[in-house]
Design a protein that fits this description.
Blueprint: H1 5-37, H2 40-60, H3 65-81
Helix pairs in contact: 1-2, 2-3
Length: 83
Amino acid sequence: MANHKATKKDVRQAAKRRDRNRYYGKTTRNAIRDLKAATGKEAQESLPLVASMIDKLAKRGVIHKNKAANLKSKLTKKVNAAK
């Protein structure tokens, strides 16, 4: 365990950030799963919301920006193919 005051604070902050990132990541993964299961109009309506969630993950640094782009591309292809 850390002995310096600033290092103890950093450990606390890192734990908070880790929990927050895990929450955002899991929520987004669930949204992606639901989008893949959705069909037709429902999928078209939820695609922009899911894409926005993916962008926010990339902006926060939870996932890489290229991974975000790949996810959005694959989801868009799937939704467009289901039309």
